[in-house]
Design goal:
Layout lengths: L1 H8 L12 H8 L4 H4 L2 E5 L2 E4 H22 L7 H22 L11 H28 L2
Antiparallel strand pairs: 1-2
Helix pairs in contact: 1-6, 4-6, 5-6
């Protein structure tokens, strides 16, 4: 939810690169049909939501947040600073490394600054919230 809320404020892609989204394109590259990756449901009178991309983005986000929390169990300190660094690392690995290498997105130097700015800030906020949410959940159970 953090990234989706953030992307509503600062859209992560320019209109020229809006379709297909990186999750849609990545899945199409591995053989998922476009009829699935582009399928939608109607949220309101005029809002079509790409359910597959939404599900995939939530899955990625939760997987990497849970991975951070699991790995941080072995650290003496689970801090917002560590979460922020983790968020930046995830951004760099995926947005500067894996997705350009697989041609899911253009080379980082061919992407608009606005895209990098939005994604960096979104990953910082997401990374900072992951340890905070974990702390609040575990503290309430004690």
């Amino acid at each position: 939810m953090v990234k989706i809320g953030w992307e509503a404020l600062l859209p992560q892609r320019t209109k020229a690169r809006k379709e297909p989204s990186p999750p849609q394109k990545m899945m199409e590259q591995i053989g998922v049909p476009a009829s699935t990756t582009h399928s939608t449901f109607r949220y309101s009178e005029d809002q079509e939501v790409f359910w597959f991309s939404l599900l995939l983005h939530f899955t990625f986000s939760n997987f990497f947040a849970i991975l951070f929390i699991f790995v941080s169990q072995y650290s003496e300190k689970n801090s917002i600073g560590q979460g922020t660094a983790y968020g930046l690392a995830i951004w760099a690995i995926w947005h500067l490394g894996l997705m350009p290498a697989t041609k899911t997105v253009p080379s980082p130097i061919k992407q608009a600054f606005d895209e990098h700015f939005s994604e960096i800030l979104g990953h910082i906020v997401w990374g900072a919230i992951s340890p905070s949410a974990y702390y609040l959940i575990t503290k309430s159970k004690k």
